[in-house]
């Protein structure tokens, strides 16, 4: 599957509804039965797990099939949890709460990984060498263009430069401010 849209995993005869129709990425937890009209729950589970999404859908397979082979088949298809019928409503609600906690943790971890990747990119950019023309003293930016140091710093031309004021210049600025005007 190329898209994270769960609708792409559904056969054309199955029509989603509710929040699912408005925003297919709204679905973070799915409860599937093995035997559903028009689609096999285990096959749908496989299709959902193959979706390209930042965070996978947590799938609970709820079915009357209770043989060891069926349970293993459900987990092999990608189900994150498996319950057999008849089931206890309170147990199902508890398992959905666990699923929501895991989805929240996964989302938080994914966000942290993205932030770490951005930070690593920044560190790598800052660690690079800065080519300087020995003739005109222009600096080559990350995009391959050349500019003066003043332009590079003022326009954030190159992320390897951070604008600062050295102590000597800070003192000189302070002296200019304190100098009486005539």
Structural class: alpha/beta
What kind of oligomer do you see?
A: single chain
Terminal CA distance: 76 Å
Note the beta-strand portion. 5-15%
The low-pLDDT segments are 18-22
Our count of helices gives: 6
Could you tell me the radius of gyration in angstroms? 29 Å
| Outline | elongated
Number of strands: 7
Spatially, the strands of the biggest sheet line up as 1-4-5
What's the helix-strand series? HEEEHEHEHEEHH
Main beta sheet: 3 strands, parallel
Helix share, percent: 40-55%
> What is the typical, i.e. mean, pLDDT?
82
Structure description:
With 182 residues, the protein is an alpha/beta fold. The termini are far apart. The relative contact order is 0.08. It has helices at 19-22, 41-49, 68-76, 89-127, 149-154, 167-178; strands at 29-32, 35-36, 39-40, 58-63, 81-84, 139-140, 146-147. It is built from six helices and seven strands, in the order αβββαβαβαββαα.
């Amino acid at each position: 599957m190329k898209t994270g849209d769960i609708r792409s995993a559904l056969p054309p005869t199955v029509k989603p509804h509710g929040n699912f129709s408005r925003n297919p990425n709204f679905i973070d937890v799915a409860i599937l039965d093995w035997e559903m009209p028009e689609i096999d729950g285990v096959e749908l589970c496989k299709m959902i797990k193959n979706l390209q999404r930042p965070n996978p859908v947590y799938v609970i397979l709820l079915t009357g099939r209770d043989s060891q082979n069926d349970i293993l088949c459900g987990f092999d298809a990608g189900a994150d949890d498996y319950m057999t019928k008849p089931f206890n409503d309170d147990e199902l609600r508890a398992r959905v709460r666990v699923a929501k906690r895991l989805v929240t943790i996964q989302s938080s971890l994914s966000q942290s990984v993205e932030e770490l990747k951005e930070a690593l990119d920044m560190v790598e950019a800052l660690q690079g060498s800065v080519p300087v023309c020995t003739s005109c003293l222009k600096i080559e930016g990350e995009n391959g263009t050349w500019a003066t140091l003043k332009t590079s710093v003022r326009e954030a031309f190159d992320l390897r430069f951070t604008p600062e004021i050295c102590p000597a210049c800070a003192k000189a600025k302070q002296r200019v401010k304190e100098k009486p005007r005539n």
